[in-house]
């Protein structure tokens, strides 16, 4: 298989001529942003041929295709990743050098594609990278939001949200595919018509509709000429507004349709792990699902006559419950447009759809009010009612006389459509995202479903792509690894195990620690530029970066910082390794307690960073606008990876894996994939603390615990808590952090006090933090432990995850693309 041959002179010429054509400038006059655009178009020029060749090959092989349906794809930047994957990074760097530009600066001009909130969206992006690299036919199906995840600014310690106008300068990589536009209908009513053969036809009338137009983005495999597609849908008015309709009196309808189209794709909902029940959100879901399912069926029918064979060629993976309307939408097409019987349609649908559960947080469960659901999607609602009727019938047959089962499992109940139940009923596979998470699903959250259909349930532990999070994000370490053990790890991460041979070698340890130091310098410069704070690259970089959520317990982390600071104030000579506590997190715009936690972190930072008496032993930094592009630098620079969620709450976590791959040691609870990380690297090279998930769940069934006992008996904790309400960190407003204090200690109701066990786990956490401090003093041990973390990260590549999905769920055909043909 020959792959792309980079030609430096040609490339320089193309960039120069792109600058000229796009901006009427010579290369010497071009701004870095203009050069970025010019380079992007030059790279696209290469990709396009491989993209076409890949799809020719899929056609020729008539390969089974995955449609990965997701409301979110948190892609980050494309250019740097793409040029790595076409193996042209060194060449392009040299070419740009010769033109007088620095590749890093050029890459920095690209905006992140932030079409996602956090882990769930980033997982989808890693999966696309692995699918292309492994050569599997796959489409990502999503929404082309006009505004992605908001940009976070910190003003006076508070989070301010600014719109993410990511498309302002256009997107050089996208291709608009007008020829594949389809219509999506909302509202109105369904009229039933009986034909001459006595068959019912269902006709939606008086509806509003939009035109869905797909934009394709290339997803480049690593060194294999495969380019897959992320297809994101834009909405347009079905008829451009015209005076004629005004005359006809349809003015109102025309305006409404125009607004509908404009609103649907306007913005990504910034909620992570939280269901808000907004009508527009349901519109977004049906919009992109209907469009994607129509496209998939049309594509299948263009090549095949027998719709019954759909499951042999097509599989839909639903990324959480957000795309669940795919089940009734496929049913609608099979029943109403293909004229199949219910039994035939259901058989095909349940062989085509599969569902991944990503959370057990009750507040994240999607339950749409019937009124809203039936008004917006009248035909879909009829179908869901029939699915429910048959499903309940089956429950009653399986468990005669047990109405409790109906209550807990029905799809429609209590005036709501329960999307998780619909997803399970309509799927042939239901998977969790880490061993512990899947066990909790089977034994607790989805127990009844598991007992009725155990064969559906399976685990697929999440993974991450080492191409972005080591090869791109940490070039120094990547080169070092390749020097030691060769470059197989790039496409076969378990190879990295060979590094274990070097873990005891003192020279290697020094080299490793020196690379870590260089990465810490790079992050320190970033922090200085963006936050104006000086941090000591010789201090321990202790990092918690992820969405802000109570269950993730950033509060526990900052309470511990406050405790440590108290100790230092009491005893300025206290012997401790200097520590930089680094935070990065966005809070959902409406999540008050999360936003207050950000303010607290910044207030604590202000006090501590300006206190000369502690001689810089502690620094606290809140990195503004945490996102994929700066995350790559942060992982590279971390010594300690904070993974401190309340056990049982974090389904998997994937940041934990990115830290490990970059040689940070995990300070964490036995939650999510932390359990498997510890299993791989060993407890001796991690810092584990806190209650187990069984203990947490046992307390929860008993209605919680009483944090006042701790408050009364532990004076260090009491002191920290009092500092939340005595103005220690907010001299002008002693009430500022009252809500945080109350969330921990609510004296009116213990069941609402400290629901995430911050205080319960505090001592155990502080003790683990002490072990970190002790361990870091032994530089050789630390280097060895860090190298062992890298060496044991092989399991956590998304290549492994994808291969398991393929082997056990999707059964896709692998394809090779040869550019010589
Ligand atoms: C999440 C989980 O919270 C997270 O633990 C997991 O790693 C991720 C991907 O499986 O999915 N579930 C969820 O609703 N969000 C997540 O990030 C938003």
TrEMBL record:
Name assigned to this protein: Alpha-1,4 glucan phosphorylase
The entry's keywords: Allosteric enzyme, Carbohydrate metabolism, Cytoplasm, Glycosyltransferase, Pyridoxal phosphate, Transferase
EC number: 2.4.1.1
Catalytic reaction annotation: [(1->4)-alpha-D-glucosyl](n) + phosphate = [(1->4)-alpha-D-glucosyl](n-1) + alpha-D-glucose 1-phosphate
GO MF annotations in UniProt: glycogen phosphorylase activity; pyridoxal phosphate binding
Family listed: Belongs to the glycogen phosphorylase family.
NCBIfam families per the UniProt record, alphabetical: P_ylase (TIGR02093)
Residues bearing PTM N6-(pyridoxal phosphate)lysine: 658
Cofactor or coenzyme needed: pyridoxal 5'-phosphate
Organism: Lientehia hominis
Record carries keyword Nuclease: no
Functional note: Phosphorylase is an important allosteric enzyme in carbohydrate metabolism. Enzymes from different sources differ in their regulatory mechanisms and in their natural substrates. However, all known phosphorylases share catalytic and structural properties.
Compartment(s) where it occurs, according to its Swiss-Prot or TrEMBL record: Cytoplasm
GO cellular component: cytoplasm
Catalytic class of the enzyme: transferase
Pfam family, one: Phosphorylase
GO biological process: glycogen catabolic process
């Amino acid at each position: 298989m020959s792959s792309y041959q980079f030609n430096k002179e040609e490339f320089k010429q193309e960039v120069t001529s792109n600058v000229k054509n796009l901006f009427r400038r010579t290369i010497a006059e071009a701004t870095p942003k203009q050069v970025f655009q010019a380079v992007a178009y030059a790279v696209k020029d290469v990709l396009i041929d491989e993209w076409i060749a890949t799809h020719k090959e899929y056609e020729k092989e008539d390969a089974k295709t995955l449609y990965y349906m997701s409301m979110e794809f948190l892609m980050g930047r494309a250019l740097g990743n793409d040029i790595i994957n076409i193996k042209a990074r060194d060449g392009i760097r040299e070419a740009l050098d010769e033109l007088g530009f620095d590749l890093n600066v050029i890459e920095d001009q690209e905006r992140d594609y932030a079409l996602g909130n956090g882990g769930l969206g980033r997982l989808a992006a890693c999966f696309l990278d692995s699918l292309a690299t492994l050569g599997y036919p796959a489409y990502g199906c999503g929404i082309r939001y006009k505004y992605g995840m908001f940009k976070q600014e910190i003003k006076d310690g508070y989070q301010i949200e600014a719109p993410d106008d990511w498309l302002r300068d256009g997107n050089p990589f996208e291709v608009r595919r007008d020829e594949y536009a389809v219509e999506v209908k909302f509202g109105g009513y369904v009229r039933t018509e009986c034909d001459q053969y006595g068959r019912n036809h269902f006709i939606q009338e008086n509806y509003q509709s939009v035109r869905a137009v797909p934009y394709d983005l290339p997803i480049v495999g690593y060194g294999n000429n495969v380019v897959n597609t992320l297809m994101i849908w834009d909405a347009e008015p079905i008829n451009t507004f015209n005076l004629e309709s005004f005359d006809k009196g349809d003015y109102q309808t025309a305006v409404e349709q125009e607004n509908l189209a404009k609103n649907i794709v306007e913005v990504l909902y910034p909620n992570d792990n939280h269901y808000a029940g907004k009508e527009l959100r349901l519109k977004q879901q049906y919009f992109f699902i209907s469009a994607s399912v129509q496209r998939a069926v049309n594509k299948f029918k263009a090549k095949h006559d027998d719709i019954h064979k759909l499951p042999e060629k097509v599989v839909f993976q639903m990324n959480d419950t957000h795309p669940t309307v795919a089940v009734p939408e496929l049913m609608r097409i099979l029943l109403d447009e293909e004229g199949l019987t219910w039994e035939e349609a259901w058989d095909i649908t349940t062989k085509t759809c599969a569902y991944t559960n990503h959370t057990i947080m009750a507040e994240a469960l999607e339950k749409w009010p019937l009124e809203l659901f039936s008004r917006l999607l009248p035909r879909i609602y009829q179908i869901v009612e029939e699915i429910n009727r048959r499903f309940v019938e089956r429950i009653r047959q399986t468990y005669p006389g047990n109405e409790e089962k109906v209550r807990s499992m029905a799809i429609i109940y209590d005036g709501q459509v329960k999307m998780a139940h619909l997803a399970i009923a309509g799927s042939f596979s239901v998977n969790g995202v880490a061993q512990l998470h899947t066990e909790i699903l089977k034994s607790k959250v989805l127990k009844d479903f598991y007992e009725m259909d155990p064969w559906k349930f399976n685990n697929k532990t999440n993974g991450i792509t080492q191409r972005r999070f080591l090869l791109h994000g940490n070039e120094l370490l990547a080169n070092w690894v390749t020097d030691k053990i060769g470059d197989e790890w790039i496409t076969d991460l378990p190879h990295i195990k060979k590094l274990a041979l070097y873990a005891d070698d003192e020279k290697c340890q020094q080299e490793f620690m020196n690379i870590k130091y260089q990465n810490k310098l790079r992050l320190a410069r970033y922090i200085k530029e963006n936050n104006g704070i000086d941090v000591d690259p010789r201090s321990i970089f202790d990092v918690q970066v992820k969405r802000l959520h109570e269950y993730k317990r950033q509060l526990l982390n900052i309470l511990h910082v406050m405790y440590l600071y108290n100790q230092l104030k009491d005893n300025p000579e206290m012997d401790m390794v200097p520590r930089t506590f680094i935070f990065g997190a966005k809070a959902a715009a409406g999540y008050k307690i999360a936003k207050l936690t950000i303010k607290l972190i910044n207030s604590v930072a202000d006090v501590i960073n300006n206190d000369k008496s502690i001689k810089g032993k502690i620094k606290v930094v809140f990195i503004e606008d945490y996102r994929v592009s700066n995350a790559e630098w942060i992982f590279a620079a971390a010594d300690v990876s904070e993974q401190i969620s309340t056990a049982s709450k974090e389904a998997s976590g994937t940041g934990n894996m990115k830290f490990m791959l970059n040689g940070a040691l995990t300070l964490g609870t036995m939650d999510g994939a932390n359990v498997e990380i510890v299993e791989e690297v060993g407890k001796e090279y991690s810092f584990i603390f806190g209650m187990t998930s069984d203990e947490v769940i046992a307390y929860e069934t008993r209605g919680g615990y009483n944090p006042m006992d701790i408050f009364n008996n532990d004076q260090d904790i009491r002191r920290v808590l009092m500092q939340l309400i005595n103005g220690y960190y907010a001299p002008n407003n002693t009430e500022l952090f009252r809500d945080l204090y109350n969330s921990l200690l609510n004296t009116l109701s213990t069941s609402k006090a400290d629901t995430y066990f911050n205080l319960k786990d505090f001592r155990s956490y502080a003790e683990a933090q002490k072990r970190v401090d002790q361990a870091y003093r032994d530089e050789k041990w630390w280097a060895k432990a860090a190298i062992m973390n890298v060496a044991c990260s092989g399991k956590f590549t998304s290549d492994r995850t994808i291969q398991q999905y393929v082997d056990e769920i999707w059964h896709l055909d692998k394809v090779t693309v040869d550019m010589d043909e």
